[in-house]
Amino acid sequence: MLSSLIEKQLEHIQDIGEIHRVKNGAEALKCFKTNYIDFVLLDLLLPDMEGIHLIPKFKEINSNVKIIIISAESDIAKIKNVAKLGIDAYVSKMNNDQQILKAIQSVKNNKRFISDDILELLFNYDSLEVTPQKSLQKFLTKREVEILHYIAEEMTSKQIADLLLISRHTVETHKRRMMQKLKVTNTAGLIKVAYDKQLLK
């Protein structure tokens, strides 16, 4: 479980202090009210609510709290809305724990951090429409291109996940991101655009 892995890594960070791990938004808010919390790792998709609703509540209790978002969210509008709330870092769940630790260290040193794949989404989202003749390779990550080829070979998400030793959820998230980048609504559209732009041969 990602939270367990992160917690183990946090134990090796100097002056990290007491660590509280909660299961949902209600528990998080209760913990925040009964303890002095100055550092939060927050998922946007919680079992009982959207994590974005907790950010202003946390800041109301402690205006100096540092907030790191760890999420699989790929919707550009939602990412931008979260950023406007004054978070300190945004890391994709598809990054490894070392990337997450890098974000934590940066925030501890009063520096903001955003993972490379999220930066790519933000910078390239509008560029595809402006420069349609450019290779799609510039808009897709190596992993996305790899998965796209397997999709074109009619492999299922589970088959791709087993082959790449990743979760089915991660494969589906990559597919959603590609569809968002290429502005299509389904897998058929994704493959069509990839062939039209000569990304697939």
The strand order across the widest sheet is 1-2-3-4
Spans of at least 5 consecutive residues with low confidence: 128-136
Number of domains: 2
Rg computed from alpha carbons, rounded to a whole number of angstroms:
19 Å
Bin the strand percentage: 5-15%
Number of helices: 11
Beta strands, count:
4
- CATH homologous superfamily of the largest domain - what is it? Response regulator
Q: What's the order of the H and E elements?
A: HHEHEHEHEHHHHHH
User: How many angstroms separate the termini?
Assistant: 38 Å
Specify the helix fraction band. Answer: 40-55%
CATH topology of the largest domain: Rossmann fold
Major β-sheet, in short? 4 strands, parallel
Quickly name the level 1 CATH class of the largest domain. Alpha Beta
Can you characterise this structure?
The protein is of the alpha/beta class. The protein has 2 domains: 2-120, Response regulator (Rossmann fold, 3-Layer(aba) Sandwich), CATH 3.40.50.2300; 126-196, Winged helix-like DNA-binding domain superfamily/Winged helix DNA-binding domain (Arc Repressor Mutant, subunit A, Orthogonal Bundle). Helices cover 52% and strands 8% of the residues. It contains 11 helices and 4 strands. It has a 4-stranded parallel β-sheet with strand order 1-2-3-4. Helix 4 (76-83) links the parallel strand 2 and strand 3 (89-92). Helix 2 runs parallel beside helix 3, helix 8 (142-152) crosses helix 10 (168-182) and helix 9 crosses helix 10. The chain is elongated.
